[in-house]
Design a protein that fits this description.
The complex is a heterodimer of chains A (about 230) and B (about 290).
Chain A (H helix, E strand, L loop, with lengths): L1 E9 L5 E10 L4 E5 L6 H8 L7 E6 L2 E2 L8 H6 L1 E5 L10 H10 L5 H14 L15 H13 L5 E5 L7 H16 L3 E5 L3 H6 L3 E6 L2 E5 H11 L1
Helix pairs in contact in A: 3-4, 3-5, 4-5, 5-6
Chain B lengths: L1 H13 L1 H36 L3 E6 L5 H12 L4 E7 L1 H11 L4 H5 L9 E6 L6 H12 L4 E5 L2 H43 L1 H9 L4 H35 L14 H29 L1
Antiparallel strand pairs in B: 1-3, 1-4, 2-3
Helix pairs in contact in B: 1-2, 1-9, 2-7, 2-9, 2-10, 7-10, 9-10
């Protein structure tokens, strides 16, 4: 589903954000990207949804090669992904339902199917009663659930979540994390960047740790090595 | 399409102040152009009045038979540049002189012999009243054997030519300058709208909206603003026109306003300005995000 091959990313100011990053994510996986601020987590996220292009190496996402993706193909790739951010990125002047419907409208979906799908994802994230609420009327956890619902409404193969619990209290964090686990259990690949190590330790999901732009630990590889060595 | 209209109209509701500012900016830009246009069409109208007085007079040799002159007049009337031909007999010339030149009334009354020659007065068609054409026709008239002399106020026609060229050129330059300024101002106000909605645009792109989908509502919004700006500018121009026109018999009494076609042109121009400003601003924004 996702393949990074010897990826380098440098910014115009000369900063090297990623150095020789190689990993592969298969169908059905849940992967944590961890590391301190500036380690390169967000850069990997941006490469995943083609907001940025690699300087060297190759990034493949859901059959698309991000390096050579034409401007016209960027929306096509994004419709196969769901993206969730720490700051929710909801439109303040639209209700929860309208925010979710918006993601379908931009794809040209028929209006009669939009309502049904919005209701379905709102139920999935446990907010069926809040369809008409505006973001300011919702708690942080609820806003993030709306953002997740918006990410899910196009039935994406991959859900990319950049610090989705960064702005939430512990209880909301647990709820959102459980929601992401449920989504993954349904077969969607989840890539979640976080620096909340408590969350990471709670589960046995694969963890890729970054430091200064390089992968310093990948549980899938390192544990296999350890098993091999034994 | 429904979505496009909804999104475009939403932006008016969300940012009424900015939308009003954009419409007003377009209106005032077009108003300036419109005022200049009004001056230009009125000037053109005044020039046309002058032009209609462009006339070639061919004086006929004494004793030329009337049939010759009638035949020649018919011939001259078929010239492509000529609107109409009028033969003035010696008697008619004298009667006219008596009527028009009152101060010489007595002198004309005591005349034994009519000193005024008969003449053929040739009026030129509209668009054929420039110096070169008038010169050419005058030359052809001289070719008739019975024509003694041809007069048409050569210098006057040439001045009219120059005036026409200068007003045309000045009109074009000032019109273009105002249009350029209008495009820039409109671009800036629409850019403000876009910056205000940068977050929304980034979210649209994030969920997979194509660039054309993002552009659509902005273009429609620009076109609507341009239309209302155009409409407002027409009202302002009309107010300005009434202000001067109401003087009645004064020097501006004969002022004219835009015809339906010209008003439509201003509206279309407003829509195009709005569309152009939006297209440039959104395009620039999309390239940078």
């Amino acid at each position: 589903m996702i393949r990074f091959s010897h990826v380098y990313k440098s910014y115009p100011n000369g900063a090297l954000a990623l150095k020789d990053v190689t990993f592969r994510v298969s169908k059905g996986e849940f992967v944590f990207l961890t590391g301190h601020s500036g380690a390169g987590k967000s850069t990997i996220m941006k490469l995943l949804f083609a907001e940025q292009r690699p300087t060297a190496g190759e990034v493949r996402v859901s059959g698309y090669i991000v390096n050579s993706l034409k401007a016209d193909d960027v929306p096509k790739l994004r419709r196969r992904l769901g993206v969730v951010f720490q700051d929710f990125r909801l439109l303040e002047d639209r209700t929860a339902g309208e925010n979710i419907a918006f993601a379908l409208e931009v794809t040209g979906a028929r209006s009669d199917t939009i309502a049904a799908r919005v209701t379905r994802v709102l139920t999935q994230v446990g907010l069926s009663a809040k369809s008409r609420a505006h973001p300011r009327e919702l708690s942080g956890g609820e806003q993030q659930r709306v953002a997740i619902a918006r990410a899910l409404v196009n039935d994406p193969a991959i859900l990319v979540a950049d610090e989705p619990t960064g702005n939430l209290d512990e209880r909301a964090t647990r709820g959102v994390f459980q929601l992401l686990r449920d989504i993954n259990a349904g077969g969607t690949v989840v890539v979640m960047a976080t620096h909340d190590l408590d969350l990471v330790r709670q589960t046995s999901y694969r963890t890729i740790e970054l430091r200064e732009g390089s992968v310093v630990y990948d549980s899938a590889v390192d544990e296999a090595d350890t098993v091999g060595a034994q | 399409m429904r979505l496009l209209t909804r999104e475009a109209l939403l932006s008016f509701r969300r940012a009424p102040l900015l939308s009003t500012l954009s419409v007003t900016t377009i209106a005032f830009s077009l108003f300036t152009i419109g005022l200049f246009g009004l001056v230009a069409i009125n000037l053109r109208e005044a020039l046309r009045g002058l032009e209609e007085r462009v006339e070639i007079v061919a004086f006929v040799l004494r004793g030329t038979p009337a049939e010759t002159i009638t035949l020649a007049s018919q011939d001259i009337a078929t010239f492509p540049e000529v609107q109409d031909v009028n033969f003035v007999t010696e008697q008619q010339a004298l009667a006219r002189a008596r009527a028009e030149l009152v101060e010489f009334k007595d002198a004309y009354r005591d005349l034994q012999v009519n000193p005024l020659p008969a003449s053929i007065e040739v009026r030129m068609k509209q668009g054929q009243r420039d110096a070169a054409t008038v010169d050419r026709v005058a030359e052809r008239l001289r070719g008739f054997g019975f024509v003694d002399d041809v007069r048409y106020g050569r210098e006057w026609v040439q001045r009219l030519d120059q005036l026409r060229n200068v007003t045309g050129l000045v009109g074009l330059v000032i019109g273009l300058a105002f249009a350029a300024v209008a495009v820039v101002i409109i671009g800036v106000t629409i850019r403000l709208t876009i910056l205000q909605r940068a977050r929304e645009i980034s979210i649209m792109r994030l969920v997979g909206a194509t660039n054309w989908f993002v552009r659509g509502p902005f273009l429609l919004e620009g076109a609507i603003k341009g239309f209302f700006g155009g409409l407002l500018s027409l009202l302002l121009c009309y107010a300005g026109y009434l202000l001067f026109h109401d003087n009645g018999g004064g020097p501006f009494g004969g002022l004219i306003f835009f015809g339906p076609q010209q008003m439509l042109m201003i509206l279309v121009f407003g829509v195009l300005l709005g569309l152009g400003g939006s297209l440039v601003s959104v395009g620039r924004h999309l390239r940078h995000v």
